[in-house]
Amino acid sequence: MLRPDPLIVETTARVCADLCSPEIVNAAEDGKWPAQLWDALESTGLSLAWVPESSGGPGASLADGFAVARSAAQGALPVPVAETLCAGWLLAQAGVPVPVGPMTVAPVRAGERIRCDADGVLHGHASGVPFAARADHLAVIVEQGDVPMLALVRAAECRRADGVSLAGEAQGAVDFEGVRCSERATIEGPDPLDALLRMGAAIRCQQIAGALERILALSLEYARGRVQFGRPIARFQAIQHSLASLAGEVAAAGAAADAAASAIIRHGIDDRRTLFAVAAAKVRAGEAAGAGAAIAHQVHGAMGFTREYSLHQSTRRLWAWRDDFGAESVWAMRLGKIAIDGGAGGLWPALTAL
After folding, report:
1. Are residues 264 and 200 in the same domain?
2. Can you tell me the distance from the alpha carbon of 34 to that of 26, in angstroms, rounded to the nearest whole number?
3. Residues 226, 324 within the same domain
4. What's the helix, strand, coil split of the chain in %, to 5?
5. CB neighbourhood size of 258 (10 A)
6. Could you tell me the residue range of the domain that residue 60 belongs to?
7. Residue 143: helix, strand or coil by DSSP?
8. Listed residue (181, 179, 141, 183) closest to 160, CA to CA
9. How far apart are CA 205 and CA 96, in angstroms?
10. Considering 22, 62, 211, 256, which has the largest number of Cβ atoms within 10 A of its Cβ?
11. Domain check: are 324 and 204 in the same one?
12. Who has greater pLDDT, 342 or 127?
């Protein structure tokens, strides 16, 4: 993957450190919107990294935006950074003016379709939309006849179900029936909805990698400081083995996430090689999320389950993100189909082309 701008990574990390303490994350889960945190992300342009300067964004590279998502996940930011990044990317692709404020995207599950009539009125609903109740706008992939389009919708005009994900973040169904979009435009590509799912999955892989990096750091710190039988538990062979296994999952998830991002940067979102890389990354990152979270909690023991200690803020996000934009089973089936369609002589070239 192309290297992101170090200043962007540093700025994101600084915002996380200064304005996203574990107490703020817990308060957000209790319903208190972290306005100061969001304002900082918006004022620095991080939330709209993929929006060009002509549309009011910083015009950062794809690598920069992926780095923002990963760094934000390391801090367990309880705001829709990734979703606003993705919405901004879609709007920029379609040439639709990008509004300020938190955004999200829909639909996020394959098979769900939103229709748009000639007057710009939408019909249909989407389930499991991340941060649906907290977004000001939604970037929605719709179908007007046989033509795929992108519609910008004011969230306040939709009927939104109040729900939460495993991470404690807003997530729920959105009913678009009878809602008029404020902007719409055709969007390039053979299947814009599939492009959204690929980009969403790639972003979630980066977030999983970031959260895993954080729980590894927490586990190392805890193991070095927790004394049992007169010595730190990090000196016990069983704990060392667990930490080494966790480090392996972190490395695997990070490499898979970077491979998917690199494929998008090099080949474009609609390329078959990109589909292969994203599918493989979502499967491997999802497996790492499950295994890594389990190891981290084993190392921490009961401490890892307390509300006051921040480990659960990352592990619950891992459990939630592995299902978003398609769980491992969904992407494994797509990966298998690629292998079958390529035949006996096609798998190795597909692997080496990444």
Report:
1. yes
2. 10
3. yes
4. 55, 15, 30
5. 19
6. 1-79
7. strand
8. 179
9. 27
10. 211
11. yes
12. 127
